[in-house]
Amino acid sequence: MNTVLALEGVRHVYPNGLHALDGLDLALAEGSFTALLGPSGCGKTTTLHIAAGLLAPTAGRVRRREDPPPPGSVGFVFQEPVLLPWLDVWHNVALPLRLLRRPRAEIDGRVAALLRTVGLAALPRLHPDELSGGMRMRVAVARALVTDPRLVLMDEPFAALDELARFRLDDELQRLWLARRFTVLFVTHSVYESVYLAQRVLVMGPRPGRIVAEIPVHEPHPRDAAFRTSARFAELCRTVLAALARSGATEAAA
Predict the structure, then answer these.
(1) Predicted confidence band of residue 1 (pLDDT cuts 50, 70, 90)
(2) What share of the chain is helix, strand, coil (3-state, %, to 5)?
(3) Does residue 78 belong to any structural domain of this protein?
(4) What is the predicted pLDDT for the residue at 252?
(5) Separation between Cα atoms, residue 81 and residue 85, nearest integer Å
(6) In this structure, are 108 and 214 located in the same domain?
(7) Which pTM does this prediction carry?
(8) Of 12, 38, 88, 155, which sits with the fewest C-beta atoms within 10 Å of its C-beta?
(9) Residues 33 and 159 grouped into a single domain
(10) Which domain covers residue 116, as residue numbers?
């Protein structure tokens, strides 16, 4: 396996004494899509922050193919879009490239291409407060991808959206991943979303977090509405739910 990132025996205790992770092992193969599923407070976001290099583990080892990762090689999509309200769509998406001091022609080309890809090419001058929640999240995804990252970390990015908007953005993310084949670690509370998107689902147990089960999803991409209503999808969801029940992590839901 060509490993992009590996967390080995990772433990993390916050300064206030909160024991977030203990003995967590996780490896991501290049171009893979992995979902990380578990109850609130089990350490999923802490895992993402350590994977991104935003947080150092208390113990254990983090191995990256490139260490430190080159600027722009890791994209992060937070639970909320975290857009700058004084910037329009175009300049929010362009911000990472501007911070990297990329040439203007490169910035213009990449931003234009990504706005077309996420369906916002007609709205480049709107500001965040003029957009729906789904549109704001599309801007956040475009911003995370504009540097052409090899690793994309996503922290429940679609959880606040209504079900239909969430389905649309799941499909959009799947299409982007198939086109670009970046490596994805996708945190979610949703069993259905994890099975629909991922090549494998990792289940975390209650805090202190660790991986307690791995469920492969050997179904071809792209997946569509027919897969969501198939007997195989239902079977896989039951398997993941059973793993959650065995771990005591029963808060995750549809």
Answers:
(1) low
(2) 40, 25, 40
(3) no
(4) 46
(5) 11
(6) no
(7) 0.92
(8) 88
(9) yes
(10) 83-148
